[in-house]
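Anyone? Bumping this.
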Amino acid sequence: MTVSNVVRGAPNVSDATRQRVLETIERIGYVPNSSARNLRAGRSGAVSFAIPTIDNSYFAELARLLLDEAAALGWTVLIEQTKGDGELERRALAGYGPTPTDGLVFFPQALVADEVAAQAAGRPLVLLGEQGDRGPGDVVIVDNEGAAREAVAHLLALGRRRVAAVGESPAAGTENSHRRIAGYRAALEEAGVPFEPALAPRVDHYTRAEGAEAVGALLDGPAPPDAVFAFNDMLAVGAVHAARERGLRVPEDLAVVGFDGTDEARYCNPPLTTVAPDKRGIAREAMRLLNERITRGDDLPYRTVRMGHELLVRGSSLAAAGS
Amino acid sequence: MTVSNVVRGAPNVSDATRQRVLETIERIGYVPNSSARNLRAGRSGAVSFAIPTIDNSYFAELARLLLDEAAALGWTVLIEQTKGDGELERRALAGYGPTPTDGLVFFPQALVADEVAAQAAGRPLVLLGEQGDRGPGDVVIVDNEGAAREAVAHLLALGRRRVAAVGESPAAGTENSHRRIAGYRAALEEAGVPFEPALAPRVDHYTRAEGAEAVGALLDGPAPPDAVFAFNDMLAVGAVHAARERGLRVPEDLAVVGFDGTDEARYCNPPLTTVAPDKRGIAREAMRLLNERITRGDDLPYRTVRMGHELLVRGSSLAAAGS
DNA sequence: CAAGCCAGGTTTAACGTTACACACTCGGGC
DNA sequence: GCCCGAGTGTGTAACGTTAAACCTGGCTTG
């Protein structure tokens, strides 16, 4: 018990005793047993970060920041890959698996808000991305609709009139993509450009390969686009790749704008214009909200935090010399 | 106890009882408490994956595969970012932190083999990358020297004579980079090209920014290179960026070869030639070795597994039309 | 028909920690 | 001289799980 008091820095331990204990700890190499602590405390000290996959530039960068924020608050983060699969998402929410966590930061893809609410069942939860009217937990978002509108307006301002939007997804929980489509349509309308469903192909996964495939199909089609607004940077990189493969120039023949503000976009060739959400802010707020919800309990009302974004204009969408 | 038997599928439970227990579990929503299990078992069911940072394409892709392999074997993976910092590496090895793990897969950077051995102190350990003569644990490697030699020989075969090597690092534990430098020098020697220290600049971190900086400095120097062998794909992407910034063409003016075989390299512009280690194999073997060492104890001798690699030749190092 | 065995189920104890109650000592204060 | 309280330190019990020992009837076996 005295050892416990010393280790935890509890009062009522004399300096002499404290010293003696610390020396002994050092000598015999005592390390507190976390399982016992967790059992006793009813906590695990770990939280989950449930995302589709970690080898997505955006989630990798976000994970880096989130791990740092978590460490600062004394939490360990456990990354769970849901692959956008409903069953895996359900499992992550319910907290199955050999390692228990006290809550999670979740980026839903397959599940809609109601299902998320049902599965989480009172577990402390912070959602990333838009969630319909009210989320089943705290929510951290960016203004997807506004950001998309800006991005597309930027392309239209360059004189482009056949702007494709790549990233609408058949997955149910991708409210983010619906908002971005809405922003896209709003920008088109504002410029008096009719919406053409064929220019908004669906993709299953936000990968470079699917970006290249989707944009390649558009470029090979009867009425190719002259610009692409991709819903993430990996899709955008795929779009650039598809254009190059066909001997088209970026941005002259095809202007491209991405989303996520990843480092990869910055070092692309040409450097990629992209909507950069405040990733550090998102990571910080997500951990802050989760920490509060876990420690302060569930009398807190659900909160929504909106983080800023910025359109980083780069070479992939500069006005072409001749146009 | 009977519940425990049912949950674990132990024998000596009648079908009737089993049924009754399962129904009750369902009804009251019983979930086994992992902390108690871990306390009882003396295990945590989790392993660490200690790497510099997760927002490095290679580690992100490797993490994805490792998480999958681990899940298949019933392990949870905890990613720890060491930032290449000695103190953080020591902590990861010793298993500090609020969440205990039963072992780890470790990519050392700051620490040398002896320090690793001292810190790990008997914890089940699998090392990624070369470790001098004998590792302080199981080791999974690729033939760094051979791979580097192939890559550089490929550049020399294109007629390049001023091949830079970017990636030698001042960090102590980067045995990988020493081997790659060795392969680089071997290839030069074989082709009768003298080694020029100025063409092998040091970098602190394997990031796109440092790749661009290092190669930019070389290109701005008195005797610029006509080819670059970068020690990872991010450095290579930075190299391409630096060349483009200066109006140079890749591969005509500067051929570039990377290392890691990341998806990013494939979709680069131009697509990046890269040495692709068998990442899936590395992930699989690493988890297999770690699993065996944890479950079978330490009477096992240290093992070294060498995985294959492949030089993927792409646009960034094709023979220039005119050369 | 007693002994033995077996399937099915229960009790005990222990894993390491810590909240809480309890015990002891030593200076004052009345 | 007695009590009080502050400052220290110790004992107890409980967190949820499970290996191992232990019951308990019914059934086989010699």
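Late reply, but here is one note on the structure posted above: The radius of gyration of chain A is 24 Å.
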